[in-house]
């Protein structure tokens, strides 16, 4: 991006932060606890550009199929984009492994939201997160959607609207211990839109890519920048590949993973759209990347039972695929993750994971740092200060840095440690 | 194999069970505890056919490289075979990530054993298991090897020799809670060797493919059947692919994984070798498979902190690779493994793992049984008796059976559950 563009991060932001959008979370009744929000609605003032990335899991859930249809997607795993007016998300039930009846429920949800909002069902995107194999009831939508729209209409001023946006972020939580949301703003000065300020807002849920049973990572991103659906899709795909796709808690890709992006253009009405190759598009991409990476890190840090965020950086890989394979194998290694939990700078486990990752390198070339301490040079052990390592393990983030010295490619993955609590949560989840 | 051949399994067998071989374990001094056996020696009366499979980990250990050289192997991952007289294995130190000095130590170990046994160093195979990144001392070999040979020479009768074989199995243990060994015998009647009885004996260590830091799966198989080195290699590779390569505890392939096979021919001296395509070779292959699968299951069941052996069977896969990918992804899923630990017949986690495995199938076709109970049919939930499931979880072995209905291929993988104890062992290992 150009040096003159400055990004301003707002940790209290949400999908409601971008002009042209409202967002709210309500208790609709998917969950028994009346205090627990369980339905989020994001509504655009006008039909707007929309794009999405979806899980590649063969066992994809009904809402994934229906949202794909609504975005005219071709094959699974391909970019999906089109036009949308609203996004509805329930938590508690994943509507996965529910067959034809599940597809019907997802379609009826879109009908119901379309009627209430005043748009075709095809302009409604839907996502679900929760238990697999249970059927979704429509009654909570029938009461929850009108209640949500009434509350949005009654919102009095920007503060109330901001609070509603934060409620949306809470409504999509499952095993998350914290809501995940934010916004990034950048000025149009210097990128061809003088006087304008553009905002990207987002919410996400997911304690890592972690619980297929609680059906997993969902994000909604809004922006008031003007983009065409294919350009929005290109930016989203690039950003997701650098952020959410670099998070792994237990090597899982769930049945329901979904990331939606909507662009209203409301910050520059009538202005030209941001086009790839322009400073404006570069600024938008950077804002989107920053927001998505922030939320991705928050997911990894909120991994079930996590006590530490682990950042695995691999440099010097021969190809981008090698970098990804090496970093992903280290980040997914239960032995690396339990070592971090035990505050053990155990580079042998990192080396063994690298060695079986499929990445090409020579063991004689490998350097490994843990927590900033060189622990392996040229494939050989380096004496390091174990006491200093133990001190550094007190930090909430543990950096594992690898240089394969096999090329120029690099990447970063985020994960968390494996704790007793992880076993407790996942061993006792349904009981 | 022909119906007339009967396999007889001997749980008290070891590499010493096959004629023409002696085996023993001693305390040589790699470990501080004088009560703990830490060096195993297997010696053939004469130079004999030898074959091996080794880890494909790029960070392979020095003894792997040296044993490969001694078996004239081409590329890593390719079959290795040749002639050998002795196998020496130490536990406590893996001699991995030790550079040139490590290679030198492994070569000197072979020199030392060769001199003591009376054979060229190139006829000695070497393996190590233990901590990565520490250098191997030669002094324990210098005293341990002569002591082992003296004890073998002093052995008085078959019982003493059998006990020595069992000591060898104990000497290679690291985090194993139980020694792993056995033998299978079959008669030569009906397969062209009337009056002869052939034996395949083995020992193995490895609590699953589990601790790179403790450097991992090692097996030594002996037989008194007559085979040429390439035929022995072919049988060994086939058998390892059906057994040890189907065990996964935490998705790891260690730096030191090694499986040696030696064939003396002593049960049919002067007779023709077993040739692929003959009943004799088929009988040998079946005996080898049974022994290797028994030891592989024992490894999975002895996974660190394991409370249950998990057997994952995938049927109806389009290809053998699809079957392997599907079964392996389920067996490696921390969510599946924690669910079994929690006695939860959570088929949603199995489905999600299948869906991301890369195997080709339609979710509408998938059937899943857990512990013999149908829990998913045609991709949809099946009501099952949760109390009955809880009762069945009391068994030591948990069967997860999948039919993808996408073809004719099938496979079985073995793993174990993920327990609090696993986290404790691996989180606290070095401290």
TrEMBL record, chains A, B:
The active site is at residue 216. Its main location: cytoplasm. It is found in: Cytoplasm. Substrate binds at residues 174, 205, 216, 304, 426, 431. Gene3D superfamilies: ArgJ beta chain, C-terminal domain, L-amino peptidase D-ALA esterase/amidase. The keyword Plastid does not apply. GO terms for molecular function: L-glutamate N-acetyltransferase activity; L-glutamate N-acetyltransferase activity, acting on acetyl-L-ornithine as donor. One of its GO terms (cellular component) is cytoplasm. The record marks 129-130 as: Involved in the stabilization of negative charge on the oxyanion by the formation of the oxyanion hole. Its EC number is 2.3.1.35, 2.3.1.1. Pathway: Amino-acid biosynthesis; L-arginine biosynthesis; N(2)-acetyl-L-ornithine from L-glutamate: step 1/4; Amino-acid biosynthesis; L-arginine biosynthesis; L-ornithine and N-acetyl-L-glutamate from L-glutamate and N(2)-acetyl-L-ornithine (cyclic): step 1/1. It comes from the Bacteria. The record marks 215-216 as: Cleavage. Keywords: Acyltransferase, Amino-acid biosynthesis, Arginine biosynthesis, Autocatalytic cleavage, Cytoplasm, Multifunctional enzyme, Transferase. Pfam families: ArgJ (PF01960). It catalyses: L-glutamate + acetyl-CoA = N-acetyl-L-glutamate + CoA + H(+); N(2)-acetyl-L-ornithine + L-glutamate = N-acetyl-L-glutamate + L-ornithine. One of its GO terms (biological process) is L-arginine biosynthetic process. Heterotetramer of two alpha and two beta chains. Belongs to the ArgJ family. Catalyzes two activities which are involved in the cyclic version of arginine biosynthesis: the synthesis of N-acetylglutamate from glutamate and acetyl-CoA as the acetyl donor, and of ornithine by transacetylation between N(2)-acetylornithine and glutamate. This is Arginine biosynthesis bifunctional protein ArgJ. It comes from Adlercreutzia caecimuris B7. The lineage of its organism: Bacteria, Bacillati, Actinomycetota, Coriobacteriia, Eggerthellales. The gene is argJ.
